[in-house]
Amino acid sequence: MSDRTRQPTSHERMSGRPWDASYQDGPAPWDAGQRRAAQDRDADARERGSGLARDSQAKLSMIRREQAVAYRLHVNHLVDRLPTGSHEQAAYVGLQDTAPRDALLGLHARMAGCVPSDWEHPTLIQTYSPRAAVYVLPVRDFGVFTLGRLPLDADAVRRIDLLADRLCARLDGGERRGGMGHELREACASGRIAVRWDTSSLWAREVPRPAIDVAAARVELCRRHVRCFGPTTPKAFSWWSGLSPADARTVWDLLADELVEVDFDGVAGWILRADEESLRSATSPRGVRLLVASDLRLFGRDHGGRFVGPGLRELTPVADSFHPNGLLVDGRIVGAWGRKGGRVSVVLAEKLGAAQYEAVEAEVASMPVRDPQLSIS
């Protein structure tokens, strides 16, 4: 494991909750080592230099942060809810499930008619995925989020396959609870292991390896990242996917013909060429949503406040360990919220109007949790 990677505390190990490595700036564990570090430095140097093949004479489209955030909220279905039953579309880029039932609440923010059991819908599956966190994913796209984050180094892939062989032998065709630690997180990239986290215990089971070509899976993972988090960069893709900077850049280059560079508040960023008009025409978001912490990345949590990572820049001064989530009102984060069971506590950073207050009440009342109750301070 990289010496830049924090170990889970004893409390985290005993809690039964899957450990979230999403704060890490380093590559996935199997990319560590001097040889890969040298490759990563080379990739960073290429990105700083002329390797991006940027035409300095061409006038780049200028994208403001507010415009980018509006586009991201629209494309992630956080402005207009999807119809009831649109589970796969809502989970298009994965729903992180680190805190208890975050994925369910993320689904509720995107899809109408969400019910408490929807995190177990037959079209969805759980496994460790980007950033070594548990995600809820579309079953049909399981290979994109597992095989798509395999390293390019053949020896590293063999190590993951051997880990998967060993764990699948222990599973012996059944579902096993806990006791597999860090090896389980690594082995999930093989596409042969799914998990089920019920907020108190983590279970693992063997599943058939997806038939998708590994190279195609990597490119599709990159494509989804750019679609949902653009404007973005190879560095942000590396952070989000868990691929090393060198591997992420190689995959990025395979998608180059589909990308267009923009001037993102004075910094180079990239979007899908097919999404350029959607980005330009994105209207100012209206309405209220209770966003889980992982969705706050859409507002830019890196140090410059533009990209999804690395970093955990605070978006509101009222956020704390019990209120890590964001209250979205008309495209802006105006408060923070937390939940314990059905008790939802909202802390405001600015005053709400009567209609906005009622909209917050309606959002909480529709939450797919038992007996939701709201308190606002």
Automatic annotation (TrEMBL):
Q: Where does the record place Basic and acidic residues bias? A: 1-15, 33-49
The ranges of region (Disordered) come to 1-58
Say if the entry is tagged with keyword DNA repair.
Answer: no
- Keywords, alphabetical: DNA-binding
Q: Does the keyword Transcription regulation apply?
A: no
What is an example of a GO molecular function annotated in this UniProt entry? DNA binding
Name one matching Pfam family. Answer: AlkZ-like
Q: What is this protein called?
A: Winged helix DNA-binding domain-containing protein
Q: What is the lineage of its organism?
A: Bacteria, Bacillati, Actinomycetota, Actinomycetes, Propionibacteriales
